[in-house]
Design goal:
alpha+beta, Immunoglobulin-like, four-stranded antiparallel beta sheet, 5 helices, PLC-like_Pdiesterase_TIM-brl
Length: 244
């Protein structure tokens, strides 16, 4: 169960990682739960758990993470574990230098250029013209979870909003287990900002250059041709340049 897995990880993280090097481990929702919500699979992936079971009927953020991970191998249901896990090593969450990842810390630069065919809330044909803005966030190793950035809204333009803002930069300490979440929302001056589209991308699958990101809705269904145009650059990050 997830509670036992998390307990083992906190009490014996090194033993847990070494155990998963040579043994199959399956985590699953607690049997007494009545809701179909999902738990965060990343802490269990970081420990090397090979079978992290989720409620597929619930299209929430944990399922987006799961889809992003297995999209790296054509959604076949198998992705090779990270090199440090195959060696039975641990990325120490209390070590800000992540010594087991020396030389692998990356700087990810994302320049948001424009959007195309951004839908109205619920993909509706009715309602006011949207004021879209974009939120970026990194999920993954605890040292990477704090990275987030938000653009300014573009007023009254869902058809072809143009941002062309300065690039945002994320320092990714554990790129093998990092995910970039992108959410397009409608800015509201009076109420709650509504999700217009989203996408989750595993860091190892990111390619540099000009890229088109096709959005999905809250049920993870395609909103094509709704998309974002971005420019991506990745480089090695020097340890001394990494903020605490």
């Amino acid at each position: 169960m997830t509670t036992k897995s998390e307990g083992f990880a906190k009490a014996n993280d090194e033993k847990y990682v070494k155990f998963t090097k040579n043994h199959l481990v399956r985590t699953y929702p607690k049997g007494t739960r009545t809701a179909s919500s999902n738990y965060n699979p990343i802490p269990h992936w970081i420990m090397g758990s090979q079978l992290v079971a989720l409620n597929y009927q619930t299209p929430d953020k944990p399922m987006l993470l799961n889809e992003a991970l297995f999209a790296m191998n054509g959604k076949c249901g198998y992705v090779l574990k990270s090199d440090y896990l195959r060696k039975g090593q641990l990325n120490d969450t209390n070590d800000r230098s992540l010594t087991t990842n020396a030389g692998k810390i990356k700087s990810l630069s994302i320049k948001l250029l424009s959007g195309q065919h951004i839908p109205k809330p619920g993909n509706s044909q009715d309602g006011e013209v949207v004021d879209p803005y974009v939120k970026f966030r990194v999920y993954g190793h605890p040292l990477d979870n704090n990275w987030k950035s938000t653009t300014a809204p573009v007023k009254n333009n869902g058809f072809n909003p143009v941002w062309n803002e300065s690039p945002i930069e994320f320092i990714i300490r554990c790129p093998e287990m990092a995910f970039i979440y992108i959410a397009v929302k409608d800015h509201s001056a009076t109420g709650k900002d509504v999700l217009l589209g989203q996408y989750m991308l595993a860091f190892p699958a990111i390619m540099e250059g000009y890229r088109t990101i096709y959005l999905v809705d809250s049920d993870h269904q395609s909103l094509s041709p709704a998309s974002l145009l971005v420019h991506i650059a990745i480089k090695d990050a020097a340890n001394e340049s990494i903020p605490e």
